[in-house]
Amino acid sequence: MFLIKKNIALFVILVILITGGIFIIGYHFLSPSKFIADNLDIELQYNADNSYVYIKNQTKDIGNRIPGTNESKECIQFFISKFDEIDSNFSYYFHNFTVLGVNCTNILFKLNKEKEHIIILGAHFDSRARATKDDGNINHPVPGANDGASGCAALIDLARIFYNKRDNLSSQIWFLFFDAEDQGTDESYGIYGWDWCEGSKRFVNHLDDFYNSSNKIIDCMILLDMIGGTGLQFINEQYSTSSLLDEIFAVGRALGYTHAFPSNPTVNSIIDDHKAFVDANIPSADLIINFWNNPSWPFHHTVNDTFNHISNESLTITGKTIEQFVYNNYLDVPWNSYHGNYPWTSDKNLLNSEIVFQILLLIGFVSVGIIIYLVYEHQKNKSTNL
Ligand code: 1BN
Ligand code: ZN
Questions:
Q1: Whether the Cβ atoms of residue 255 and residue 324 lie closer than 8 Å to each other
Q2: pLDDT category of residue 349 using cuts at 50, 70 and 90
Q3: Which residues contact 199 (CB under 8 A, 6 or more apart)?
């Protein structure tokens, strides 16, 4: 009898511990952020009309920006011409590399390059060589209006806006255009033998060629990927540094963009150009949509990722949110009393959804094992007592 009571007590304690554990994991890692942004009161300049044209320039005037092609080189010249319009002395740097013998280039533009703190705003400019999610068209290229060109277009416009405010900004801003992001394997390869994010991985490996880490510091990296499609809704991307991504979501929500920055976003881990920066301990965030199961954006890696599926409103939401985020944290004006999550060192996404699933599976197995053992002991004791 005593043994049965002891086992039941043990069972109850275990159930409490397991349930408590599941709640703690769920609350800590999956609950939405409580941070409410008190945005700096300032008029935002971002206007999607320019970005809209820059997407058209990339997709229609230049064409497919497949790594190693003339169109890819033309696209780089296009970026240079746009920064040259802002200031003919805008500093820029090439990062040349090869992938399986193909010549590729990342290009970096620096604003306020004498300042100590650095914010990186990034996007990839290559477009996918094969429409691998488009049955019947898999050997056609993806135009990449959203997947590639949208983020680059927003960067150009943000560069012009921040250039005009440069004397009041307390940081450098890097505008970084990655080559060779989008050729990895989903249904099949984009370019045979290539991985995702070839350009950003190599850039981070050579980061020290682009700044002096003994007297400059990279505060954060923000990636804009697929920010211009219709029905914009960002996900809670799990490789991203949570304190940084949470803050960007809060800034967007405080601007009224609650549909694009929902309080309970879709959660997933996406290998993208921010990941190499996260792996190098630089707080980084990926602004990206659900591209795998999304009726509002069914065009991912298809021939329909075209200019006519771009939304002026989505570009505006993204552009204004980034503009506000930068002013909140780096606009040097007497009335700026903003307090966000800077320096974005806290990251609670230590578990990705796969690991959470495995832990829950393990807990399930252990619980079933304990229950079987207790039932067995109970039956044994019953027959001994008889
Ligand atoms: C994201 C946007 N990616 C490419 N374009 C990366 C990726 C796509 C990673 C599919 C895994 C699967
Ligand atoms: Zn892609």
A1: yes
A2: confident
A3: 95, 97, 104, 106, 124, 126, 178, 179, 180, 181, 273
Is the CB of 126 inside a 6 Å radius of any atom of ligand 1? no
Q: Decide if pLDDT at 204 tops 80.
A: yes
pTM of the entire structure?
Answer: 0.88
Which numeric CATH code is attached to 48-330? 3.40.630.10
Give mean pLDDT, residues 189-218: 98
Q: Is the CB of 196 under 6 A from ligand 1?
A: yes
Phi, psi of 106, deg, nearest 5: -90, 150
Sorted by where each begins, the domain ranges of the chain are 2-31+351-385, 48-330
Alpha-carbon distances of 331 from 60, 61, 72, 203, rounded to whole Å: 36, 36, 35, 28
- Here the tokens at position 1 are 């009898």
pLDDT-derived band at 12 (thresholds 50, 70, 90) equals: low
Q: Tell me which DSSP letter residue 165 carries.
A: T
Q: Does the Cβ of 147 fall within 6 Å of ligand 1?
A: yes
pLDDT of amino acid 289:
98
